[in-house]
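FAQ: What does the model actually see?

It sees only this:
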Amino acid sequence: MNECKVRDACAAVSESRADLARNNPDVAAMRARLERDAFSRQGALSTIKKHLVTLSALTALRAVSNIREKTEAALADGVSPVQIREAVYQCAPYAGFPATEDALREVDAAFSARGIALPLENQATVTDENRFEKGLAVQKGIFGDVIDAMHASAPEGQKAIMVDHLSAFCFGDIYTRNGLDLKTRELLTFSIISALGGCESQVKSHVQGNANAGNAKQELIDALEVCLPLMGFPRTLNALSCVNAVMPD
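And it is asked to produce this:
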């Protein structure tokens, strides 16, 4: 997309949001208050992590019209382009590639409007030959020997999903990338699957994964507060119940 088209697209999005606010001032005011209160409260999460959680949750929710604005806000608060891109890449194993690619188009448009050269520097660290091995090492580093038991018990016809793709793609291709540390990636995974809804079993697993990676309970709670205006109370409360079940006080 050339510079003129990017400017035109950004202007169209801004005008659409302005129309919504003019026609629905109460909704605009309610959203602004809730997002302000959830984002500005001093808690366990840094501003950078709040922005990354927001972008990953929006990607999972396929809220494409919100991505560019939130990318611009993240850049303004000092979040690096690589951190933003990696937060969206983290969504691919959980929300799927179509949702991830839709979000990346908006992120790239925001980068181009800022004069940020694309593509960004490659952060991959694995090859076709070692992605399974490296991914399995990361997976076991987070979840421990339970992974060996899961692999051993996987039915023969299901090993491609439960063993090969999960270790090689989710953990090998994604978790081994540079740009974000392991604690941040695991926090984003928790936020993504919480936003998806109906994934309580996986949410509980990744609450434990966050604990194993060194993230505190309050960090997960703060991430849910940031996500609340985006995904609503039912999914937020379901995820909060998972946090309390796995990490009781």
